[in-house]
Structure prediction request, 352 residues.
Amino acid sequence: MANTEEHAEGQQHPLGIYLKVWAWLFVLSTGSYMVDYLNFQGYLRWTLILVFMLAKAGLIVAVFMHMLWERPALLYAIVCPPILVLIFTFLMTHEAGYTFLTRDLFFAIGT
Amino acid sequence: MAESAVTNTGAAAAEQGVLGALVADWSSDQRAFKNVPWGKAMMWIFLVSDTFIFSCFLLSYMTVRMSTTVPWPYPSEVFALSFGGDPIPLILIAIMTFILISSSGTMVLAVNYGYRKDRAKTAILLLVTALFGAMFVGMQAFEWTKLIVDEGVRPWANPMGAPQFGAAFFMITGFHGFHVSIGVIFLVITARKVWRGDYDRSTPGYFTSRKGRYEIVETMGLYWHFVDLVWVFIFAFFYLW
Prediction:
C-alpha cells in the first residue's frame, strides 16, 4: 500500500455510486411524499415514514458523507453517540404521557 | 504491516476485525483518527453536537405534541398549496425536499471533481449547490410569509389548533433555514477559492493561515449533507407525522 499521503486522505470513488445513490434518494423522497399524498393513516403511515426516513438518512451518511469508507475509529465515535438520543426519546414520551394525563384530569375535574 | 495500518479502505479492519481496528486506532500514538485531516474530524464532531441540538428541538416538539389536549394542526392541510385548482397537499415541502436532494447530488459531484483537481467543474458545481440552497431558503421565506400573514400563525397561537404548533414550527424550520443560509455563504466562499486556484497553489486561508487543499471541499460537503440529513428528519417528523 504505497499510497501518497494525499491519496490516502482523500475520498475518491467512482461517479457511478454517487449517481445511483442520488437516484435512490429521489425515489425514496417520492415514496415518503406519496405516504401523505395517498393519505395513509395509522401504523402503516408511521412505519412507512420511518422506513423511508432511515433509508434516506443511511444512504446520505454512508455514501455522500463517506462513512462507508471511513475507519471504524471515526465511524463509531460519530455514529454511536446520537443513538443515545433514543433513551432521551423514551424518557420524554413518558414525561409527555404524564403531562397529558394531568392536563386531562385537570380539565375533567375543573369544568 | 505498519503501512497497512494506515490505509483508507478499512484493510486494517479486515485483518484485525472491526473491534480490533477500533482499539488499535484509539490506543495508538498521537492520532486516533488516522487518514482523516483534522479539519474533517472537527467538522464531524461539530456535526455530532449539532445533531444533539436538532434532536433536542425535535424531542421538545414531540413532547408538546404528545402532551397537548388540543388537536394538533394537520400539516398536510396547513402546507397545502393550490395552483388554480384543488389544493395539493404538502406540495411546497415536497418541492423543497427535492431541491435539497438535488443540491446534495451536485455537492457530492463537486467533492469528487475537487479531488480530481478539476477546478472549473468543482467551482461550477459548488455554485449550483449554493443556488439550490438559496432557492430552498427563498421557498422557506415564502412559506413563513404565507403562514404568518395569510393564516395568522404565531409562536404562541394559531387558528388551526394547538398553540405549540407555531413555536415548534418557527424554531425547528428557522434553525434549519439558518443552517442552510450559512451553508450557502460558505459554498460561495469555497467556490470563489476553488475558482481562483487557492487549493492548487496551497494558498493559506485568510483567518486560519492553513494551506488551502481540496479536502476543504469535502469538509464543506459534510456540512451541506448534514443540512440535507436534518431536513430528512424534519420532513418525516414535523411535516409527515
Summary: Chain B touches chain A through 71 residues (CB under 8 Å). Residues 166 and 226 of chain B are 25 Å apart (CA to CA).
